[in-house]
Every structure is written in C-alpha cells, then in structure tokens.
Amino acid sequence: MHFLKGLSPRTVGIGAAVITVAIWTAFIVIARASAKGSLTPFDIALARIVGASLVLLPLGAWLVRRDRAIAGQPGGGASSFFGLSPLALRVTATCGLFGGFGYAVLAYAGFFYAPAAHASVLMPGSLPLWTTLLAALLLHTPITPARAIGLACIVVGDLLVGGASLLRAFEGGEVWKGDLLFMSAALSWSAYSVLARRHGLDAVRATAAITVFALFSYLPVYALLLAFGVLQSHLLTAPVGEVLFQVLFQGLGSVVISGITFVRMIQYFGPVRSTMITALVPGLSALGAVIFLGEPLYWNLMAGLVLVTVGILFGVRKTIAIKKEAPGADSTGTKA
Q: How many CB atoms lie under 10 A from the CB of residue 55?
C-alpha cells in the first residue's frame, strides 16, 4: 500500500468506492449469468473462500511475522489461527463470522432458493437500512432527518427496480427462504462494516482475518455435509474454466480487491455513507443485465435509478455539511 501514500485521503476514498461498486455490480450480473451453470451455490462459496485464501493466508502470515519483529508497534504481535490472522482472536472471530463465513454462506444459500434478481435488490439494497440501525446502536450515530430522507429515497428506488419480483416472492414454493437469506446476508455484511469501523481496522488486515476465519470454519462444515450426503458438489465434473473463473473472480475480485477497497471506503466515508454509496449497486446491476444479458429496460428501472441516486447525493451532501459545521465529528457523525 506504499503507492497510496502520495494520494490524498479523498482520492483514495473515492477510488475505493468506485472499485467496490464496480465489483459488487459485476458480482450480481455474473451471479445472474451463472445461475444455470454447472456449480452449486455452495461450490461457488468454496471457490470464493479458497481463491481468496491463496492470496490472503500467506499475506496474513507475513503481516504477523512483521508485527512480531517490530518492537513497540501498537498491536504488534497480535495474531490468531496459528499465526495466519494478523488480528486478535476475538476480533478475527467476530468480524470473520459476519464478513467472511456468514455473508458467503447466507448469500450463496439464497441463490439456491431464489433467483438472482431478488439478490440484486435485497442484498445491496437493504445495506443502508441495516447499517444505519446498527451504527445507531453500536456507534451511537444519529439518524438525522436528512439521512432519513436519503434512505427513504433509496428504499423507494430499490423497490421500483425490483418491485415486480418482490411482489411474487410469497406466491408459493420456497422463494421466500431465498429472500430471507439475502436480507440476512445484507445484515451480516452490515454488521461487519460497523465492526470494522468500531475497531478501526486496517483494510488489508481485516480482509485477511475474515478470510482466515472463513476458511477454517467453512471448509470443515462443507466437507462434513458432503460426507453425510446433505450437499452435492459439482467441482469435479464442472468445466475447469468455469471453476477457475469463479476462483479468480469470487476470490481475488469479490474478496481480496473489493474487501480491501470496501474497508478503505469505510475509513473515509464511514459505514453509513459507505452503504448509501453501495446502494447504487441494485440499479447498476439491473442496468448491466440490460446491456450484457439482454434483459428489457422498463420505466421502473429508470425511475429507481434516479431515486437511488438522488437519495445517495442528498444524504451524503447533507452529512458533509453537518461535518463541516462540527469539526470534532468523524465521518459517521459521532465525535472522534
């Protein structure tokens, strides 16, 4: 990260936000395209965790060794999971439970029951709501009238984008289970984002830690469920190219790159404003589906995009104004 030292915090924050939104948008579009692929949702979750681990486990071990070699460094020597996580056990476990294991299992399990279109609305679309509530509870971040109005615009926009699919969610079958899992995945990721802010976690260390926890928790559970016949795996029969693509995109892209940029975005914008920015993902992913998957462009998509954008700009601009008036407040609105 030495090359970032010459950049201003604003440049790093905005760049991290752009990269995060781009990868999250691609994740939804690719998930839609992969719905009829060879791999099961739990195979893709494994590819995500293993792919990220190939990069982040060696990095985590290196960070631990470096910390131990630097005498007097704050937090130096703090590690867990056999020296692979550069964070203490409690922080690794709590953040990893929500940001690593929990999010991956809940999100990919949701794809087993509900179509990807539901995920594009319910996962990124509900992040601002969950994060606002959790930030108010854990960080004592006030829910200002301006932020409430911005959130209302985002919610209405998200409902316009995916309203048709949501109205059919409870007509029968098991689709409602997927919807519940998608919303639980959003809650899990929101909890991680607030915890990352609360503990002041470094982006690289946090991403390495949650990946270590995900590997040590998910892999044994996955193996046991396969052994007892609860799950079926297509990893050995799927095309090699498809497996490698999921390992690279889900692991390197969705975890390593976007995981680091997401925490960088939180460091600059705060958890609430960050998840308001990621509320662009439902509309952009729907627009990406129009361009890349040939899905029709309806009026509700355009109206939803406008409302979400207005809500984000309104909430962020008003928050900045409040911050300028109160120099002692951090980016979440609480006192530093």
A: 17
Residue 210 CB contacts under 8 Å (≥ 6 apart), including other chains: 92, 95, 96, 99, 100, 192, 259
Q: Which residues contact 269 (CB under 8 A, 6 or more apart)?
A: 13, 17, 277, 316, 331
- CA–CA separation, 163 vs 178, rounded Å? 16
Neighbours of 229 (CB within 10 A): 7
| Residue type at position 249 | F
Matching residue, tokens 């098991």: 174
pTM above 0.85, yes or no: no
For residue range 8-46, list pLDDT tens digits in order.
888 888 999 999 999 988 988 887 777 677 888 889 889
pLDDT (tens digit per residue) in 122-164: 787 778 788 888 988 888 888 888 778 888 888 888 777 766 6
SS3 content of the chain, % helix, strand, coil (to 5): 75, 0, 20
CB burial of residue 86 (10 Å; 0-12, 13-18, 19+) = buried
Alpha carbon of residue 13 to chain centroid: 16
**Cβ-contact 124, 27 below 8 angstroms:** no
In Å, how far are 106, 114, 119, 128, 181 from 173, measured between CA atoms?
Answer: 19, 10, 17, 29, 15
Spatial separation of the C-alpha atoms in residues 100 and 218, rounded to whole Å:
9
